[in-house]
Amino acid sequence: MLFIFYTLVIVLGMLSMGFQMLASRLLSPHYGTTIVEWVWLISTFLAAFSVGSVLGGWISNLAAPRRGRMQFALAAVGIASLAVTALFSKSILDGIELRFIPAVSEMNDQGGTGMNTAVFLSCMVLFFVPVTALSSFGPQCVGWLATRGTAPGKASGVIYGVSTVGNIAGVMLTVFVLIPNFRVSHLLYGWLAVAAISLTGLIALLRRVEER
Question: For residues 187 and 181, what is the distance between their CA atoms, to the nearest angstrom?
């Protein structure tokens, strides 16, 4: 069970940071690869990690029935928002770019009000919600490990250490293997499928322990 648990933690870490690499490829045809794009992209992911961690910590302290409902709800939101990104990212980005096209057409490394607004909206609409949902399971994994007798501090260190290994693997695999060999649109469908499977498996594992 622990092997499956740590595997799922690693996979979620891979999904989170690998998704950031895919996000940069989604944005670049519309906004280039300027520092403005990366500032908003990194900030969006960090904000999502922060909100997700707080949300996951709150859920960890709920009573078991309500905690289970919130886990299902967050998984559903994460999968649905990833589906929106996979299916509609091009039309969403086209619409935002068209709305701000006078400013975007004159973009440079410093950007401008229109450029910053366009990239910010794109990041929030396409990436913030799914990353928040994925990140919310980190504290819940810490709580699960702590209930098995691991000291809370150690459990936190182990989970975030293992998750960071997944982050590194996700970046490397996405940049050096997946992006050069597959279309980004196809990779997004893969992200959606893996997220659905891994979140379903993780929730089942968490609930299995609670029902004992």
Answer: 10
The overall pTM is greater than 0.85: yes
Q: Is the distance from CB of 139 to CB of 57 less than 8 angstroms?
A: yes
CATH number at residue 82: 1.20.1250
Give me the percent of the chain exceeding a pLDDT of 90.
79
Domain range spanning residue 147?
2-210
Show contacts of 80-84: CB within 8 Å, 24+ apart: 81/129, 81/130, 81/133, 82/130, 82/188, 82/191, 82/192, 82/195, 83/192, 84/126
pLDDT band at 109 (very low <50, low <70, confident <90, very high): very low
Q: Count how many domains the chain has.
A: 1
Residue 116 tokens read as 């910053």
